[in-house]
Design brief:
The complex is a heterodimer of chains A (272) and B (261). Chain A has 272 residues and is α/β, with parallel strands linked by helices. Chain A is built from ten helices and ten strands. The longest helix of chain A is centred in the C-terminal third of the chain and has 26 residues. In chain B, 84% of the residues lie in helices and 0% in strands. The N and C termini of chain B lie far apart (47 Å). The chains are: A alpha/beta (272), B mainly alpha (261). The interface between A and B is medium-sized, with 28 and 17 residues.
Chain lengths: 272, 261
């Protein structure tokens, strides 16, 4: 699929295993440069495993991940170090270091990879925090932040070295809709202003369609479809339709179950 | 018969893989000494955690051990009318054997378990993965400062343990049981030679490496063997770390003693 941007990363026939259990089957898709690619699927479909392959944390299994035409699986230690200097990763939990303040967390990569004086590093950390609306929380410990703030702080750390490629794992999980939408806007802004290549892994349909330039739909370790949001929405592929419907049904069932518990079944039935 | 052979083969291969991973872990940690990032502040922080905070625990342990040695030594020596050798007995027991072993065991219980739990929590919370993704060597960043700090702290804590223990023996032997202070101190001075001190230092350095190696390894790979990461795996790893470190220290004590004796 041509979108006017070449593919920065290409996944070619990737298979993955946990012990003898296969979790990814012949994964093939491209990640376009300076665009947002969303890998979407229900929980347990292998999205995070795929992400771990893309960031080089899981390297076994047949298949290739080509970065700039070079096989990521064959990178030596130095090659992997250079690749990781180009990427930023926001983990689902934020993965902030609990023994450091938020500002110190953001300063970690700057302290390790640059020879900047401490004062400059502090200013740079504050700038990142300010961009993410956390300027006054620099002295806080991660445990003192809400879930959304931890995610934003984790994102600030991921952006500390101004990466070329940003990987984001489940940005909206555990967040209220307003905070989740705010994070989505932030990702769009990063793409627009900095021309960053962003790869998002999520199970949230709404968020996926809102931010993606390219959607990769996964189910049970396999790719169901790859395309633009419009292409996916208009897809006549039965499996994709079933996936989209099932996602919608899951939301409906969860919402109805929740409302039943707090309001009682009679109220729900009368509302219908 | 075939399933039994298969199980045995699988077990042996698993153990070999485990030992190989442990060996590589130590290589990466030692290699971290010469790799970035700079470790001065991190080492100072770890010295505070491993050394300063263990000071009182080691002091109490050493004092009571010295006092018990004073009591038991006096009881045994008085049977032969050799109470004057009490100072020699207490000093040599502590400097050659009990000082390094007790210090290492107490530091394992206090700091080793905490290090294992800290690193295990970092593992299950993706913090170690985050370090790798920031192109930071997690061995050099997390473990090497602990190793260096322990190599500095443990011999010093052992020396402290020896001194306090000898004084504990003095209090009981001289002040309580009436041994001549001159005889006690002269016994210490004349019986302890450089080789005894050297053996104690060598042991404490070996124990420092063993403790850091085992405790941090267990935390670093908490749950990896069973492919499940959670609080239960961290608590199991911490228990394993303390038990295995303690056994390794005692076994290592025998080996070092037999080599240096």
């Amino acid at each position: 699929m041509s979108m006017g941007h070449s593919d920065l990363i290409e996944v070619c026939g990737l298979n993955s295993y946990y012990d003898s259990r296969q979790v990814l089957f012949d994964i093939r898709f491209g990640i376009p440069d300076k665009r947002i690619t969303v890998i979407m699927g229900v929980s347990g479909c292998g999205k995070t495993t795929l992400l771990r392959h893309l960031i080089g944390l899981k390297r076994t299994g047949p298949g290739q991940i080509m970065v700039d035409g070079r096989d990521l699986g064959k990178f030596n230690e130095e090659g992997m170090r250079v690749y990781r200097r180009r990427i930023g990763v926001l983990f689902q939990s934020g993965a902030l270091f609990n023994s450091m303040t938020v500002a110190e967390n953001i300063a970690v990569p700057l302290k390790v990879h640059t020879r900047l004086p401490d004062e400059t590093i502090q200013i740079m950390a504050l700038i990142k925090l300010n961009c993410l609306g956390l300027a006054e929380f620099g002295a806080y410990m991660p445990s003192q932040l809400s879930g959304g703030m931890r995610k934003r702080a984790g994102l600030a750390r991921a952006l500390a070295m101004d990466p070329e490629i940003l990987f984001v794992d489940e940005p909206s999980s555990g967040l209220d809709p307003i905070t989740a939408a705010g994070l989505d806007l932030l990702l769009l802004e990063l793409r627009e202003t900095l021309g960053m290549t962003i790869i998002v892994v999520t199970h949230e349909l709404e968020s996926a369609f809102r931010i993606s330039d390219r959607l990769v739909v996964m189910d049970r370790g396999r790719i169901l479809a790859v395309g633009s949001p419009d292409e996916i929405r208009e897809s006549q592929d039965g499996r994709v339709l079933q996936f989209l419907k099932r996602e919608a049904d899951t939301v409906k069932v969860n919402a109805t179950g929740y409302l039943s518990r707090i309001l009682g079944n009679e109220t729900i039935r009368s509302a219908r | 018969m075939t399933p039994l052979v298969q199980s045995l083969g699988a077990f042996v291969l698993d153990q070999l893989a485990y030992l190989g991973r442990m060996g590589l872990f130590l290589v990466y940690v030692v290699r971290g000494i010469i790799r970035p990032p700079a470790k001065f502040l991190a080492v100072v922080k770890q010295i505070h955690f491993i050394g300063t905070k263990s000071f009182f625990v080691i002091g109490f342990t050493a004092a009571f051990t010295g006092m018990v040695l004073g009591l038991q030594g006096y009881y045994t020596l008085s049977k032969f009318g050799s109470e004057g050798l009490l100072g020699s007995g207490v000093a040599l027991s502590l400097i050659r054997e009990l000082g390094p072993v007790l210090t290492a065991l107490m530091v394992t219980g206090r700091a080793g378990s905490a290090m294992c739990a800290e690193i295990g929590i970092m593992r299950i919370d993706d913090q170690i993965d985050a370090l790798e993704c920031m192109a930071i060597d997690p061995f050099a960043y997390l473990i090497t400062p602990k190793l260096l700090a322990c190599l500095i702290c443990l011999p010093l804590l052992t020396a402290f343990c020896d001194v306090v223990g000898i004084y504990g023996g003095y209090v009981i032997g001289v002040d309580l049981l009436g041994v001549s202070p001159g005889a006690y101190l002269e016994g210490v001075e004349h019986s302890v030679v450089w080789k005894d001190v050297y053996m104690g230092i060598a042991k404490s350095l070996c124990f420092a490496v063993l403790m850091i190696w085992i405790c941090t390894y267990k935390g670093f790979y908490a749950g990896v063997d069973i492919g499940n990461f959670g609080p239960e795996e961290v608590s199991q790893a911490t228990t394993d770390a303390v038990v295995l470190s303690s056994v390794a220290i005692l076994a290592g004590d025998y080996i070092v003693t037999s080599i240096l004796l």
